[in-house]
């Protein structure tokens, strides 16, 4: 997958049917839906695929127990259906996960027990398993490190778990297989207009500085937290629609929560659901919900958010984690659609919103990873109506995502790559050292990095350690230690010089340091 060939295809098309701006879950889903319907489709992303929100989720494919409690049955139904489809279409990325809701008050067992039975019922044929009531003894068998004071039992239910950025990369590959074009590090710097109607995109290749004119019948804004910026590019006086909410997660070693079950606390002090989820042999604790005024590519956790997560981890785990126990901190921004009647972001709906501006620019925003496919189908349906494209039905309900295999084995270190795993094993034979771990504290091999450079559009150290592998989220300190080694590997594959290596290591270290647990920020700063 040579970048020069991708750029040549992007720029040689006389007119695209659809151009999607934004390479997160929403944009990738829209581009895949369009390409699989047979439309000439291009996607451009200003940074890397899933750079923002889409690589920093809680790693859950779920119906949303929280939304059931809010009474948003339609969202839960959609999400439960999409959860089931994701398991069918990407079983190498998505798996069933056991969750336990511990009960510390007398009313919680019947309340959550009944609620989760409703959750089971709503899932129907696509259910992941039936919820059950657990005794204290049974819970301790599943989560031996849970806080036992006042514990009276609990409820087990089943949802899904996935690797978010790995799914994003597989979606990019599936777009290509369906005849579309998707490229990272190409930024929309302007919109092409004809008599007030959007007719394409002016784009910059940020690696070369080259500017391209990309004509299109329909342009879709799928830029997440940067949605308002692109809409203002179309109409400077347009009213903002996005309220950005920040979600922070901390990552701990598995000793804090061994076993295969996750823990879900339905209502914390701020009214938000809290999860403690095993993932890649670590435990993710999250998440917070803090309104943020400005969207950034690399947001940072606030002091009060880190305090909240540590204190709540201590509240529900028998061993109290400290700052020195945190292996990494990752922060994501949610693009919530403003609602004047709501006073806090945790009360805003995760339903998606589609807006068609007078210029014909189509904006898709809101939503969540689990429902990305439905969001995409709705968006392309709208594009067909607005732009007069042929009326073709969505094909993605049963479309297998790149890497699909029905033979997933956790014993294979490359199982997350699905059907690409044998090819990575072959790469190990090309150079002996490629079969070695990139760091003794990380579960990744050099062959994986080479594979991602050659086949997954990885261009930087951050691309490799944050999104192709998940090393930066698992152990930020270890990643800083190997930055130079990884940069040299990229340079050898892409023919970069020593100057690039030094600059790249500096760039990566400035990002990676933000994943270290270093409390220093507050809302006032």
Question: Layout of SSEs?
Answer:
Blueprint: H1 3-12, E1 16-21, H2 25-36, E2 41-44, E3 60-61, H3 65-70, H4 73-89, E4 94-103, H5 108-123, E5 132-134, H6 136-142, E6 153-162, H7 164-177, E7 181-183, E8 186-194, E9 197-205, E10 211-221, H8 227-234, E11 242-253, E12 262-265, E13 274-279, E14 282-286, E15 290-292, H9 303-316, E16 328-337, E17 352-356, E18 362-366, H10 372-387, H11 421-427, H12 446-455, H13 461-468, H14 471-474, H15 476-494, H16 498-512
Parallel strand pairs: 1-2, 1-10, 2-7, 4-12, 10-18
Antiparallel strand pairs: 3-6, 4-6, 5-6, 8-9, 9-10, 11-14, 11-15, 11-16, 12-13, 13-14, 17-18
Helix pairs in contact: 2-7, 2-10, 11-12, 12-15, 15-16
Compact summary:
The protein contains 16 helices and 18 strands. The protein is α+β, with helices and mostly antiparallel strands and 525 residues long.
Beta strand count = 18
Q: Nearest-angstrom radius of gyration?
A: 23 Å
Q: Give the strand content.
A: 15-25%
Number of structural units classed as domains: 3
Characterize the largest beta sheet: strand count, sense, and whether it forms a barrel.
10 strands, mixed
Label the structural class: alpha+beta
pLDDT averaged over residues: 94
Commentary on this structure:
This protein is an alpha+beta fold and 525 residues long. It has three domains: 3-53 and 166-241 and 349-398, FAD/NAD(P)-binding domain (3-Layer(bba) Sandwich), CATH 3.50.50; 59-81 and 93-161 and 243-346, D-Amino Acid Oxidase, subunit A, domain 2 (D-Amino Acid Oxidase, Chain A, domain 2, 2-Layer Sandwich); 415-515, Alpha-glycerophosphate oxidase, cap domain (Helicase, Ruva Protein, domain 3), CATH 1.10.8. The chain has 16 helices and 18 strands. Helix 2 (25-36) crosses helix 10 (372-387), helix 11 (421-427) crosses helix 12 and helix 15 runs antiparallel to helix 16. It is globular, with a radius of gyration of 23 Å.
């Amino acid at each position: 997958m040579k970048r020069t060939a991708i750029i040549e295809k992007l720029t040689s098309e006389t007119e695209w049917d659809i151009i999607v701006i934004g390479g997160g879950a929403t944009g990738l889903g829209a581009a895949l839906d369009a390409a699989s319907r047979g439309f000439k489709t291009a996607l451009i992303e200003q940074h890397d695929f899933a750079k923002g929100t889409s690589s920093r989720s809680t790693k859950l494919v779920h119906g949303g127990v929280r939304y059931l409690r809010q009474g948003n049955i339609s969202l839960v139904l959609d999400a439960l259906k999409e959860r089931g489809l994701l398991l069918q279409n990407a079983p190498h990325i998505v798996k069933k996960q056991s969750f336990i809701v511990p009960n510390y008050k007398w009313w919680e067992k019947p309340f959550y027990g009944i609620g989760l039975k409703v959750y089971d019922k709503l899932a129907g044929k696509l259910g992941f398993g039936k919820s059950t009531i657990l005794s204290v003894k049974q819970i301790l068998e599943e989560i031996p490190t849970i806080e036992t004071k006042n514990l009276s039992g609990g409820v087990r239910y089943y949802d899904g778990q996935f690797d978010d950025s790995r799914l994003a990369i597989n979606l990019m590959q599936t777009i290509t297989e369906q005849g579309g074009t998707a490229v990272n590090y190409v930024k929309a710097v302007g919109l092409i207009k004809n008599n007030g109607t959007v007719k394409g995109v002016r784009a910059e290749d940020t690696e070369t500085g080259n500017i391209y004119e990309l004509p299109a019948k329909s342009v879709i804004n799928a830029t997440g937290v940067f949605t308002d910026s692109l809409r203002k590019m179309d109409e400077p006086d347009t009213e903002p629609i996005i309220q950005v909410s920040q979600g922070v997660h901390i990552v701990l070693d598995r000793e804090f929560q061994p076993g295969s079950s996750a823990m879900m606390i339905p209502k914390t002090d701020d009214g938000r659901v809290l999860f403690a989820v095993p993932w890649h042999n670590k435990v993710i604790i999250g998440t917070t919900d803090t309104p943020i005024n400005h969207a950034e590519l690399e947001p940072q956790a606030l002091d009060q958010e880190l305090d909240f997560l540590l204190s709540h981890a201590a509240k529900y785990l028998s061993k109290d984690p400290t700052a020195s126990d945190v292996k990494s901190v990752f922060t994501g921004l949610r693009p919530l659609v403003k609602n004047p009647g709501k006073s806090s972001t945790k009360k805003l709906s995760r339903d998606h919103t589609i807006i068609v501006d007078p210029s014909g620019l189509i904006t898709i925003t809101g939503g969540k990873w689990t429902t990305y496919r439905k969001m995409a189908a709705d968006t392309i349906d709208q594009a067909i109506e607005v732009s007069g494209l042929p009326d073709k039905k969505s094909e993605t309900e049963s479309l297998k995502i790149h890497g699909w295999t029905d033979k997933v084995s956790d014993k294979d270190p490359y199982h997350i790559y699905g059907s690409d795993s044998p090819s990575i094993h072959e790469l190990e034979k090309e150079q002996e050292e490629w079969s070695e771990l990139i760091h003794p504290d990380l579960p990744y091999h050099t062959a994986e990095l080479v594979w991602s450079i050659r086949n997954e559009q990885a261009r930087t150290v951050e691309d490799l350690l944050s999104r192709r592998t998940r090393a930066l989220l698992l152990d930020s300190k270890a990643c800083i230690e190997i930055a130079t080694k990884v940069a040299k590997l990229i340079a050898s594959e892409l023919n970069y010089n020593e100057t690039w290596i030094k600059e790249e290591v500096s760039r990566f270290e400035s990002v990676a340091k933000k994943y270290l647990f270093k409390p220093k920020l507050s809302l006032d700063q």
